[in-house]
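Proteins fold reproducibly. Look at a concrete instance:
___
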Amino acid sequence: MDKVLFLFQNTVLNRRCVEAAVMTGLALNCSINKKSLFDRKHYFYADLPAGYQITQQRVPIAVNGSLSYSLCIDNKMSQMVTKTVRIKQIQLEQDSGKSLHDDTRSQTLVDLNRAGVGLMEVVMEPDMCCGEEAAAAVRELQLILQMLGSSQAVMAEGQLRVDANVSVHHPGEPYGVRAEVKNINSIRFLAKAVDYEIQRQIEELEKGGTILNETRAFDSKLGCTVPMRDKEGKQDYRFMPEPNLPPLILYDTKSLPANLNHQQVVNIDWIHERLPDLPSVKRAKLVERYGILPEHSFTLLNEDGLTEFFENVVKETQMKPKKVIGWILNDLLSYLKQHSLTVKESPVSSFLLADLLNLLEKKEISSTAAKQVLVELWKGEGKTPLEIVKEKKLELIQDQNELEQICQAVIDGQENEVMAIKAGNRKVLNKLIGLVQRETQGRSNPVLVKQLLEKKLSE
């Protein structure tokens, strides 16, 4: 469920809220209803001060869409499969307040600041079978919402929340009784909650129990779902047409009356023409433009700000994008994850990393030295890569005579290895290269070292 930050003020519908819903519906391949209706859904809960919620139960704004998403096979990014979940409908609603449970004092506080705020609910069909699939689908939806500008969709801030309905059944049999896990605020927790609930229901049925049609919550500390309340049946909500909101009428270019002010209506075709690139298109463009692997494009998009970081580095460096992506994913991203930092919080800017990679590409430093420089850059002391190289004396040895002498000394001290190489075991040459690297403290060019060693061993 996605919270779009626009208000129903005095039960007057906000145009931007409607446009965001239409845009989302088009991005999810939905049919947009040119006429949709608003309803009142009555129920009592502490965080619903009006005693009813405005929703679209009869005729929602968009229906019959689909969302394609990809997930890894056996956690291998190189093996991905694409799946599709059907979108039943998208409806506009009012948000309720927020209940804050204080277990230590055994009381619940209610925050009504968001009550009445516009809400866009995306309802999916039961086409997913595990937590991993649910998490992948919601992550793709999150990216779409962010690229559209429909929502910032930051789950930790409540801008995107998920209600997961889970049931189990034997193949060929009707769906079982479902339990709803409410207000999941993390993609990682979503995967855990769904998988836990599936296993809980299976175990309950296997020991002869029954599944209750209830609302549950996911306890992230315990890693399990816990009961909240029994679900009310549809008849308990006493749906009725919303008397203060007339039917919502949308137009396309063909149906738009000439005498209407275009600024006062929502034109579906106008919105469709202005849709930005969606994640699937953006990934394809990254692969085509930079020659990177498809799985790398997923990682770039999945990490907020990483695509821009990568493209900025590529613009400022002479290194090929295929090499740059390795430094971005293997070195930069690994460090950020270890220290729980976002890309925007990185102490190493795209310009600093580009400067470092330029030194490496110009063969002024070795890759070993480049990693040492990167370690220093993480400290955020304001030094440039070149300043660190000079301070630590990490420049590659440019004097070939000096390098030849070191290579000769290594050869003279490794008689057994030299005999093995001359007998045809070329793999041993890597050991000699490593020894030269050690002697030079990583300041030698491995390619040049290999050439010098091969030359001396053939004499």
The first strand starts at residue 2 and ends at 7. Confidence is low (pLDDT under 50) at residues 1-9.
